Amino acid sequence: MCGLTAVVQLGDHPESKPKTDVEREIDNSLERVKHRGPDAQGRWISDDGRVGLGQVRLSIIDLSSQGDQPFHNTEDDVHAVVNGELYDHERYRAELSEEYSFQSNSDCELVLALYKRYGLSFADHLRGEFALIIYDAKRKVLIATRDRYGIKPLYWAIWQGRLLIATEMKSFLGYGWQPEWDVSSLRERGWTNDMRTMFKGVRKVQPGSSLFCRDFGDIEHKVYWDHVYPDKVTCASHMSSGSVSDNLQNVVQERSEEEMIQGVRDRLVEAVRLRLRADVPVAMCLSGGLDSSSLAGITNHLIKTEGVQLGSSGSQTLKCFTVQFEHDRTNDEAEIAQRTAKRLGMEWIPIHMDETAIASRLEDVAYHSEMYLGDVNAMGRLALAEEVHSQGIKVLLTGTNPHVSDDGYAWLEPERIKEPDPSWPALFDTDKEFQNAKKTQFAKAESLIADSARQISSSFMARMLAGDYVAGVMTSITELPFATWTDKYTSSPATTVLAESLPSHVYHKMQHHWHPLNTAMYIWNKTNFPNILLRYIGDSIDMVHHVESRTPFLDHHLTEYSMTIPPSLKMRLDPETNKIREKWILREAVKPFVTEEVYQRRKAPYLGPVEFSADGPLYKEIKRLVTREAVEKLGLFDWGVIDSMAEKAFGQHEHGAFRTVLAVAQLIVIGKRFGVRTAQPHMLNGQAS
User: Fold this and answer.
1) Which of the following is catalytic: 2, 213, 285, 320?
2) Is 2 designated active site?
3) pLDDT grade, residue 248 (50/70/90)?
């Protein structure tokens, strides 16, 4: 787990900066993310100063100086910096040791060995969470690659004729970058759905993708992995007269339920086993939910049956950390987590989050996540990482789950019941039973669907995404009252931007070949999951206190198996009660490892409280940040609209107002700490107002 930076002077006849200047810039860039790597710092710069790589290191595997980066091959013409963990590296090391001379025991050095053997397809063989940069000096090729889910962030920009790449956008400030708000991206929610960010000209390397720069010229992107779901229908093998659509047949799942349950169980256990390996102590984040509880239970099982060690601690007593929001007992899962830990014989450590603790972390959450969200859950995650670090622990297993294996969110229920699941037809005896269940379930689910989700049903969006509701739900999260002058920089509705951000080859699959539940999951995993959830309560927050979070559910071996499971076994609908049992296949897979209480619980999203008093610490912090001067400095909102938000949020407990004013406060923090210019019409896209 580390922080990366890179700079490339573009052009045929560049005027490269002196090497000493590039060294200073790289050091300045790394200084802004030194919290990500307190154990070592290194850089490499080409002799002509055209290319530079830098890294700050958090030592997890091979704590010696041999594991420091950048890495270099024996010919000294391929150089690499890597952030993250690569699992199962011991097997690859044994296979490749005869053709590559390893200089360390670091898992990350594996990247150079795989590149030597497989060339540009090396990423196919990586297992884990990672972001990395390779420079092949002989071929003049730079490669920046991100893991399949977007667990690790990786951004790029072209600034003054130079390609900049970094783990966090704040690192670009070390190269003299002057940030401006991308108002179109903010208005259209491009920063949550496509390659854009909130800053003009700054882009993301997309999950499962690589950025290439050849011969210091054009930038290109290639996808090396994507979510692929099975067809629900296929063309009949013996065509009779008529159109293709008249000759489709259902693709029926041939595996038994027991086989699929065991398949998920085996792969999840393996994913946990791999992520318990480290040269430092390992602990766990534990809530009252099924995901983290199952990881705790599996870890306990591996300790007892296989003698697995928790990293280098030598202890067989797992420490479990739980965030407890004292202000809101409704969503508090601490008591359930405590009971789980007690039953498993684990040490339970609660992190008490009162209002003062939340308020004191608001600024750091905004600055380090580099985004806004109208929720305080990231403040709890930041406090958890702080406590983990204080106990000398560097690695934390978390239950972060994209729900590719179980589909647990309630707003997915309409997609599950929108049409029958032809891969598992035995669930309903007659079409009448299915229609009755559909009617009942849709009546219940209507209250879960945002108005914006309903509105897309009459547009071309319905045809692009096969009428999927999820686009509307995704784009309705923390909507902000932007100033009216920004309307002219909004060319498309947010739902359209979301739909058009998806790869073109999936539209036909969504419309004709994927079950609606799989379509919904694809949209979630390509948009809000990597761009909001993984940023706000993931790596960027954990690393503030030098904690590496590992996510067993985000193991592509597990994902690829789970995607083949029939939707009706992920969210199972009981034809007798017409009720959906969400996360069904996962519940059955982890049943031997969890308590009956956890097994029976419904999915509850990790959300913080939204109601606070008008004289408390959070109110005072919001009032300190959200002033007329600060709002006008942003340039994105009218003070007359924002002025009353705090009173509505804290005095009248309007939840929408609370989320709005909290998000505005976070944008103000980012604007101040990054030194972002005030947004004005004449500044946008080089156009006059």
Assistant:
1) 2
2) yes
3) low
Phi, psi at residue 55, to the nearest 5°?
-155, 140
Segment 559-563 shows an average pLDDT of 95
CA distances from 7 to 160, 180, 203, 447 (A): 11, 20, 15, 50
Residue 434's Cα: distance from chain center in Å? Answer: 35
| Assigned token pair, 409 | 């969110």
Phi-psi category of residue 163: left, alpha or beta, with phi > 0 → left and psi -120 to 50 → alpha: beta
- Kindly report whether the global pTM for this prediction surpasses the value 0.90: yes
The pLDDT tens digits of the residues spanning 497-516 come to 999 999 999 999 998 899 99
In the block, residue with structure tokens 């950048």: 70
3-state class of 151 per DSSP? coil
Contact residues for 412 (Cβ-Cβ < 8 A; gap 6+): 403, 470, 517, 520, 521, 571, 582
- For all residues of the chain together, what is the average pLDDT? 89
- Domains located in the chain, CATH noted: 2-223 (3.60.20.10), 617-686 (no CATH)
Q: Is the pLDDT of residue 294 over 80?
A: yes
Cis peptide before 70 (omega within 30 of 0): yes
- Closest residue by Cα to residue 143 from 161, 126, 160: 126
DSSP H or E segment with residue 47: none
- At 466-482, the pLDDT tens digits run 777 777 778 888 889 99
Measuring CA to CA, which residue among 470, 476, 478 is closest to residue 452? 476
Q: Which residue has the tokens 């997890």?
A: 60
> Three-state SS for 158?
strand
